[in-house]
Amino acid sequence: MSKNIIVITGATGTQGASVTHTFLAIPTWHVRCLTRNPSSPAAQDLAASGAEVMRADLSDLPSLHEGFKDATAIFLNTDFWGPYLSSRDSMLAYATEVLHGRNVAIAAAEVPTLRRLVYSTLPGMKTLSSGKYVHSYHWDAKADVAEILNAEPGLSGKVSFLVMGVYSNNPLFLPRVMSDCKRKKTLKFNIPGKRSLLLPFIAAGESTGTFVKALIDSPAGQWVLGSDSHLTMGEVVDVWRRVTGYEVATEEVDVQVMHERHNIPWEVLDAPQFIAEFGYIGSLKVMSPEQLGVETKSFERWLADRDWEEMIMKGEEELNGVSEKS
Q1: Statement to judge: residues 95 and 234 lie in one domain
Q2: From which residue to which does the signal peptide run (predicted)?
């Protein structure tokens, strides 16, 4: 009996790797990972784990036709931050991401064996705020790709959507390690807005695959929020205090001040403003993980399993990398 084939785009990324490892553990599935560089260490690790690794580029339709051949399911996660970091141009990164999504829609629509395409998306901030928050192109690009996939006749009855929550290691919501004159270490949160900011957190490297498997096993047309825990920033601070045993200080920082003080672009800072006013998903209708039958992992358990000091260091590097003066 032949196996089902799942094709995973962006397989060496956080979400794609999670989906890859989830399906490698299921004997009835063959895992095909698409990557621009099959010889990279990350791609070679996937191959060593048992995945088929193929070269494909979301800008290259012929490579997608080849990569999607005989696919039963496709996991799609388009990339904004790669084009953005190389250009510092939000509109160019938006256009690139939307083009990639359109190419996948065209290629996937021609796969007769395809039963399900799961797209990792985000709410359309500009539309859901009636044009109030217009700088978050990485949210709006994914929302527009979702519309393209929904409108493609050849994908009718085949597409579901995973509305990803905030990564639990998102550097905007991580503390910094501070030392006083006696070298006593404390943690300091600069909260963008208020401690009451409510966020749906997801351990993307661990949980994405579970959500994608559930969506593939469910009827098409589902929209589910990819979230392990809903916590206010005040609750996040309390979890960090319990897990680390450190003293934790907090400062509620106005986003305008954060923009001016830390050079964080509005591409990033529109999000906490939108969430504070409209909620993370606005008026978008989504299922909860519980409604989809997904078992989730608490934020506290996730943090307890981390090398959190290394995570903070990497978060600082990542945030510095997107700053407007980096």
Answers
A1: no
A2: none
Q: Within this chain, do residues 213 and 78 fall inside the same structural domain, yes or no?
A: yes
Are 269 and 256 contained in the same domain?
yes
Q: How far apart are CA 43 and CA 34, in angstroms?
A: 9
Residue given tokens 């890859």 in the structure block: 20
Cα–Cα distance measured from residue 93 to residue 87, given in angstroms and rounded to the nearest whole number:
8
Tokens of 110: 């021609």
* Contact in structure between 6 and 197 (CB atoms under 8 Å): no
Q: Is the dihedral of CA 106, 109, 113, 116 positive or negative?
A: positive
CA dihedral 218→71→155→10, nearest 10 degrees, is 90
- Give the domain extent around 274: 171-198+230-283+295-322
pTM: 0.96
Instruction: Identify how many contiguous H helices and E strands the chain contains and give both numbers.
Output: 14, 13
> Do 268 and 307 reside in the same domain of the chain?
yes
- Tens digit of each residue's pLDDT, the chain (326 residues): 689 999 999 999 999 999 999 999 999 999 999 999 999 999 999 999 999 999 999 999 999 999 999 999 999 999 999 999 999 999 999 999 999 999 999 999 999 999 999 999 999 999 999 999 999 999 999 999 999 999 999 999 999 999 999 999 999 999 999 877 667 789 999 999 999 999 999 999 999 999 999 999 999 999 999 999 999 999 999 999 999 999 999 999 999 999 999 899 999 999 999 999 999 999 999 999 999 999 999 999 999 999 999 999 999 999 999 988 75
Query: Is residue 13 within 8 Å of 7, Cβ to Cβ?
Result: no
Query: Domain holding 141: CATH number?
Result: 3.40.50.720
For 326, residues 6+ apart whose C-beta sits below 8 A from its C-beta are 263, 320
Task: Judge if 240 and 314 occupy the same domain.
Answer: yes
3-state secondary structure of 60: coil
Phi, psi angles (nearest 5°) of residue 193: 110, -130
